[in-house]
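Incident log, entry 3
Record: AAA-ATPase At3g28570, mitochondrial (502 residues)
Problem: checksum mismatch between cached and fresh output.
Input:
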Amino acid sequence: MSQTGVIKDQKLLLLQKKKSKRNLIEILMGSIVKPLLGDNLTTIGSNIAGLLFIIETLRRYFPGQLKVTIQQLLVNAIHRLPFFKKCADKTLAYFSPYAQIRFREIEEYRYNYAYSAIKTYLGAQVNPQVKNLKGSQMRGRESLDFKRDDDKVEDEYEGAKMWWEDLKSTDGVKMCRLTFHRSNWEVVTGAYLSYVVEEGKSIEEKKKTVRIFMNNPSSNWKLQMKHLWSSIDFEHPATFDTMAMDPKKKDEIMSDLLEFREGEEYYKKIGKAWKRGYLLHGPPGTGKSTMIAAMANLMSYSIYDLELTSIENNWELKKLLLATSSKSIIVIEDIDCSLDLTGERGVKEDHQSNAEIKREKKKENSVTLSGLLNFIDGIWSAYGQKRILVFTTNHLGKLDQALIRRGRMDMHIELSYCRFEAFKILAKNYLNLDSHPLFGEIETLLEETNMTPADVAENLMVKYGESGVDGSLKGLVRALEQMKLNQHSNEQQKEIEYLTKQ
Ligand SMILES: Nc1ncnc2c1ncn2[C@@H]1O[C@H](COP(=O)(O)OP(=O)(O)OP(=O)(O)O)[C@@H](O)[C@H]1O
Ligand SMILES: [Mg+2]
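Fresh output:
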């Protein structure tokens, strides 16, 4: 056979192969795309462009969701063909007249403020044309609050149309996507998005609802696609007015908090991260948790209640802390029970045994004090702005000095047993009393005993028989006398034990 004969045969074979592939494509594509397919690959690009022209025309005539559905149908049909999926992707991106921007709630482990502002803005797009709404009523508000409750929202700005869509990412992070015509690029990336974010922020500011966040166990982050934190509206009624404590100390704490809130310039000037740490310590029932609620209400900051026992290592701790939002109070209650505070920051000996080294390695894989401190000192300084960190403990003495040294915990607040000044606040709150003949006796008994504000409050809430306020106060006097007796006999018991040991 001549050389030209061989080439002819090969061309024929190639043509047959192409034809059989094309037949396969045509079967798969069905009747929508079939007529658009040309004789060779070079025409595919222009055919897709033709297809997009049809999509674009359909877009103009069919509003909102239908448009997106038609486009998705066609795009899906093309994507089902593995043969030229890659080619189609590139061509589509090149020819598509639409661009998209995604906003994830957590971006590179950090909270994305634009996301929450956008969600607030979209939720506020309420008008009589909207079909899905959700209603709620917050504590202290008389009117109902309506929010738009649609996964897809169409918006318009200076004549340009935009489509927002809620999406779920594969890693479980909430996100939304904006689709817009490329011809509106300047408007959207410039004025429109700034407008949306600013508007969202100002709505958030006006409505300012304080929320309380709880961390989900890390096992849920991946498996159930849950988020790092779950939250509900924070409706604790405690305020500094209702806090029973020494009024001077109360004023000091309140001024410290308010100064912090307005301290942007100051923190910039001194070159320190805009954060503040409070260590609340005292026996159970003295108002540590109540004070955190009062702080949140005073500052209008949300609370992140960090449960260390449900996370596994420092990496998870970092991830959680970086996902907190600004203007928030991060709380670790009973810090002495949540962390192994012993020894881990101790000076490393040169002659450590293998067992010791292994033990240390194991500790590296769990939540440690140094992990927490690294965050407070390290990343925090670069990232954590306008955050308050609160640790609580019943046992100040058990805490590692490294944790409580000044600079980390800026203010140590002792909450203690109820004395007369604190009692007067409770009497005002619970019984609406400024004075009473029994106040003198109560003052003396409070000095002689160690009753917590929680126990005093309990007694004031009980109304004894018909005697109302008098009955409550008499009940309190009896409880205090009983406590005094118990304390006295305990002391005697201890003295006897001591003497018998001698
Ligand atoms: N100083 C206080 N002022 C006003 N109410 C108080 C105060 N201390 C306690 N109470 C009342 O007692 C209840 C228990 O107080 P709280 O939970 O704040 O104590 P705590 O110090 O956090 O205790 P624990 O160490 O057990 O966590 C509160 O609901 C509150 O009503
Ligand atoms: Mg508490």
